[in-house]
Design a protein that fits this description.
Layout (H helix, E strand, L loop, with lengths): L1 E4 L2 H23 L2 E5 L6 H7 L2 H4 L7 E5 L1 E3 L9 H8 L21 H16 L7 E5 L23 E6 L4 E6 L1 H4 L4 E6 L5 H9 L18 E7 H4 L3
Parallel strand pairs: 1-9, 2-3, 2-5, 5-8, 8-9
Antiparallel strand pairs: 4-7, 6-7
Helix pairs in contact: 1-2
Family: Belongs to the glucosamine/galactosamine-6-phosphate isomerase family. 6-phosphogluconolactonase subfamily.
Enzyme class: hydrolase
Pfam families: Glucosamine_iso
């Protein structure tokens, strides 16, 4: 489902409202809320809104569990770290227990070793069903999401929930949730805006099915909801 908005402010407000709604619903039903954050610059406005006085008191943060969709294999204090951005805009401003936050990086282990460890953490919190309440995703100009990049072997992964690999074009390791795990979620919200997203959004949503070229097409929830929040420019209706 695609929802088109006038600007990024409307997208941010809608995404923040969905986050709060999902959190309240999950906590009321089962006593905890499991969410996956996305990186890059796109979600910063959403996170700042959630950290604002108007939003943060609507959620019992002691019952929130935070994971990430993907991460560059860099220390948590590196400017390239998705976790660093999430802390600076949201997590350092809300009363969430540190033990409820699962960063996608750890010193002293290989990316592959930590991918297996991260999967164990997910199973511990979510159980064997592996169903997140809410996953926030972005979409690259090339149609990638999380660290599911065009042409990479990770696109074929069917058994692992978390994988790590060396992304040669970027000359760095990436760690990512895999499509099968993402697709288990109750709600998946994709945020995309701006002129650079026009081509990818069109191909992903209305083009021929070719996930090797446009990995976002792999995101097809098993029983949950997939929602694209886009602006008029990205939708090509501006």
């Amino acid at each position: 489902m695609i929802q088109i908005y006038n600007n990024t402010e409307e997208i941010n407000t809608t995404a923040a409202d969905l986050f709060v709604e999902s959190a309240q619903k999950a906590i009321a039903a089962k006593g905890k809320f499991t969410a996956v954050l996305t990186g890059g610059s796109s979600p910063a406005g959403i996170y700042k809104l959630l950290a604002s006085d108007a939003y943060k008191n609507k959620i019992d943060w002691s019952k929130v569990y935070i994971f990430w969709g993907d991460e560059r294999w860099v220390p948590l204090n590196d400017d390239l770290s998705n976790a660093k951005m999430s802390y600076s805009t949201l997590l350092s401003h809300v009363p969430i227990p540190q033990e409820n936050i699962f960063e996608m990086y750890k010193d002293g282990v290989t990316p592959e070793e930590y991918a297996a460890e991260y999967e164990k953490s997910i199973r511990t919190v979510l159980g064997e069903e592996g169903k997140f309440d809410l996953i926030l995703l972005g979409m690259g100009d090339d149609g990638h999401t999380a660290s599911l990049f065009p042409g990479e072997a990770v696109l074929e992964e069917q058994t692992k929930w978390v994988d790590a690999y060396y992304l040669a074009p970027q000359k760095m390791y990436r760690i990512t949730l895999t499509a099968p795990l993402i697709n288990k979620a109750e709600k998946i919200v994709v945020v995309a805006f701006g002129e650079k997203k026009v081509h990818a959004l069109k191909e992903v949503t209305t083009g021929e099915y070719n996930p090797t070229l446009y990995p976002m097409q792999l995101i097809k929830p098993v029983s949950g909801e997939l929602l694209f929040l886009v602006d008029k420019v990205a939708a090509g209706t501006n």
